[in-house]
Structures are given as C-alpha cells and as structure tokens.
Design a protein that fits this description.
367 residues, alpha+beta, 4-stranded antiparallel β-sheet, 23% strand, elongated
C-alpha cells in the first residue's frame, strides 16, 4: 500500500510542494488526503496521484472520483500537445488546462476489444512461443536440459531456465540478462519502482525509469506487473503463457524462485507453470519412478500434491510422475490464485508458498 507521506516526499523530490495534510478520509473504493496545495487520491490499486489548481477545480466540479472520469491515473504534467498547457489523466478521460481557455474535459473513446486483441497479437504469439519452448523442455532427459541451461553453473538456475526459454525464441541478451534473480525481475517489470526489501516487504518507492516507461507507453507497449496484492484482492488477472512468475517459498525475504507461465484458467484460478530447479512434476514418458510417499503429502500452500498432479494431467492431457520435493530438474507444477492458497511467511514461518508477482515484458523487450 502506497503511503501518503511517501507520495508527498516523492513529489517534493520532483519540485512540487503539496503542503501539509489537512485531512484524510475513506472513499468507496479508495482514500483521499486533502493537502494545502493539492488533493491526493489513493486509487483502488493503491497507487496515489495528486490533482491541483485549475484542473482540481474542474475535477471537483464534476464530482471527482464519482464522476465519469473515475480515479486519477497520473499526476499533473505538461501537456505534450499544447505549449504551456497542463494535463491530468484519469481512468476514462483527461482534464487539460491552457491559458486563456481554462480547463476542459475530454473523455476517452470507446475501446474496441477486437482492435485491442489484434494490436497485442504479436506479443501474445511471441510469449506463447516462449511457453511452448518451456513445455518442450519437459520431454528432454533431465541431465541434458539441465546442462543446456546451467552450462555447469547451478547458481540461480531457475532464472537461467527462464532466460534460456526466452533466448530460444530469439529474445536478446539485453532482456534475458535481467532474469537472473527475483529482485531484478521485479524492478524490470515495474520500471525500477517496485521490489522487496530484506524483510520481504513490497516497496513502491524506488526511483522509476520514467523515460523508458513513457517510451513504451507511447507505443502502447508497456510492461505489466501483477503483485500478490492483486491476487489477494481477487481482481480479474490478465495472465498470458510466457509471463514470468516470482514465488515466495522460503524465509521472510520476499520472492526466491522464478517460473514461467504455461497456462492460466481464470475460471478455476489455476496457474500452470514450468521451472528449472523447482521440484515440480516430470513427464511419465521419461521413465522416472514415482515417489508414492512424497505424492501423498500436502504442499506448502495447503493443497494435496496428488490433487495438483491430477489437475495438471486433466488440464493438459498428459501423464506425470512426482520424484519428491527434490530440485535439480525442469518440472511442471501449478498454483491456485485464491487467497486461501497463498500462504505467507507470517501465516506459517516453517512452511509457506505464494505467488509474489507475475511479470510481462513489453513486446519491445522481445525484439
């Protein structure tokens, strides 16, 4: 949750003085802080934006967050289309100001979902190609695929596995080199703004690479990051095969494992993933014996391991074996993205597992 005081400090660093907070109150889907020189709005996704001056007056005139504009989605900034103008963006429109015409509201046009899907089709296809490479790796002898991925060095090889699958699809090293650890991937997905501290706490106050973010946004090609907060809130999750998954399953230091999405079912919330060095299921076709004792156990997220095996087999039409919770191979597993199956360190200090974040690169990262 972004803090009002953190936002005030961020704005001060950019040269804007909010003044002191005069009052705070709850909104139907967010929070509000009235300051001496602006109003801060905490949106449903917990991001905070300021609105001030003539734009604020216009926003208040039409009903603020209850208006057709919805919540703010930017701080006030220079209007790139008008010399000397200012603009603030909202969920469903924008308010711009220029002298001497004053403030004006412009609502966004209806979004054609067919056009949207067509626009992102190259990204979806490339990510699916990457996910298919990950799935194909399950068919290779375990020692063979391990050597291809690690090249003899097993350090961080869950990240190396994801980088390997991306590289197989022609993704450049400047992108895959950022997949070696969980903190780097979090910073990558959030343009440098979000990662976890040594206590595993999600922080959103790191310096954002706004120039790169704006370059991507200008081409409708921004990266995407879903956090455990979105999962806990049970939002509708936009997850694609090929997205990168960060998992927290050891200690209190935040995410410590990296996986890749193979399939997501929004109806059941089942997220099927492939990883390196993660101890997941193997294809029965490899001839590896099943560990029946280990299969009868309960996973760290509270789900019977045998149930996970059956769910994946039914979903994908494949036969699996479970070697036990042993790392050292490429495997397939699943998460259920419901709060009751996202076990935090605070919930169980000896045994826990949750999806910490899901990251999607920009199509521009993949070229």
């Amino acid at each position: 949750m972004e803090n009002f005081n953190t936002k005030i400090a961020e704005l001060a660093g950019r040269g804007f003085d909010t003044g002191q907070i005069l009052s705070e109150s709850e909104l139907a889907k967010g929070r509000i802080a009235i300051c001496q020189n602006c109003v801060l709005y905490a949106c449903p996704d917990e991001l905070i934006f300021e609105v001030h001056g003539n734009i604020l007056m216009k926003y208040q005139e039409v009903g603020e967050t209850t208006s057709n504009l919805g919540f703010p989605r930017s701080d006030e900034m220079d209007d790139p289309s008008v010399a000397g103008g200012k603009v603030s963006y909202f969920e469903y429109g924008k308010i711009s100001w220029q002298y001497p015409n004053g403030s004006a509201i412009e609502m966004y046009e209806f979004v054609d979902l067919d056009s949207y899907e067509l626009q992102r089709a190259p990204l979806v296809a490339k990510l699916q190609e990457i996910a298919d490479y990950a799935f194909d790796a399950l068919s290779e002898p375990q020692s063979s695929i391990e050597n291809k991925i690690t090249k003899g060095s097993k350090e961080s090889w869950c990240g190396k596995a994801v980088a390997y699958f991306y590289a197989k699809a022609g993704v450049p090293n400047k992108t895959t080199s950022q997949f070696m650890n969980t903190s780097n991937i979090s910073l990558f997905g959030s343009y440098g703004k979000m990662t976890f501290d040594h206590n595993g706490v999600l922080r959103k106050d790191y310096r954002e690479n706004t120039q790169l973010k704006e370059q991507h946004m200008a081409q409708d090609a921004a990266r995407k990051m879903i956090t455990f907060e979105d999962i806990d809130a049970q939002y509708d999750l936009d997850i694609l095969p090929g997205d990168i998954v960060l998992v927290d399953n050891s200690g209190k230091g935040g995410a410590d494992h990296i996986q890749i999405v193979y399939k997501y079912d929004p109806g059941t919330k089942m997220l099927t993933v492939v990883d390196g060095n993660g101890g997941g299921f193997a294809l029965a076709s490899l001839g590896i014996p099943n560990n029946d004792v280990a299969l009868a156990q309960i996973a760290a997220d509270g789900i019977p391991i045998s149930a996970k095996k059956q769910w994946i087999e039914d979903e994908l039409g494949i036969s699996l074996v479970y070697q036990g919770n042993v790392a050292g191979h490429v495997g397939i597993s699943c998460h259920i993205l419901l709060p009751e199956y996202q076990i935090r360190y605070e919930d169980n200090t000896s045994k826990h597992k949750r999806v910490w974040a899901i990251i999607r690169p920009s199509i521009l990262d993949l070229q």
